[in-house]
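Supplementary material to the annual report.
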Amino acid sequence: QSVLTQAPSASGTPGQWVTISCSGSGSNFGFYAISWYQQLPGTAPKLLIYNDNQRPSGVPDRFSASKSGTSASLAISGLQSEDEADYYCATWDDSLPGWVFGGGTKLTVL
Amino acid sequence: QMQLQESGPGLVKASETLSLTCTVLGASIRYSEYYWGWIRQAPGKGLEWLGDIYYAGITQDNASLKSRVTVSVDTSKNQIHLKMTSVTVADTAVYYCTRRPVQKCTGSGCTTYLDQWGQGTLVTVSS
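Predicted assembly:
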């Protein structure tokens, strides 16, 4: 069972706006920034969002994220077929200590 | 452009020790702003952090693995090593080498993230 909670699946049609949520607890969300990772089929995860809502260079601005309290969300606007992937949230958890991840959300583009 | 390249046996017998190497290309491990580490992903499952290390030898590892994991660094070869003892079939996974910036903290919180990943190497544990 993952420390951070994500819905196992999400879906949308091309052009749509979809959100993926992630929830945690005070020991992780309380003081540490959330990052998000995109894992395309058969590939390694890739950093998508860091510092709760910052995009690394090269990540399209269709991807955005936010955090409030013990919840975070990733939003994808103008959904494209190449966005079909698994998405993971992650952060540092002081109570362990160590990195913790959400179980991942499989995004299907219909 | 830096790369992380994992290598090691793809098949290990149960009860033996798994040993993997990550070679860092295009950057120096001695650069003091980063931790280097390992994350794994069992087939069809999510991500699990194993541990990481600072070039000076400071390590952190996943306590749930009950001290089976050792992460070490060889700065002369620009490599990071992973050793996992007493493996079982449950340790079958793709093992990724990772890099993360040293945590930066302000009054409003701390931040770090996994900004570089290797392509991963599949290790199968046979019974």
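Chain A touches chain B through 26 residues (CB under 8 Å).
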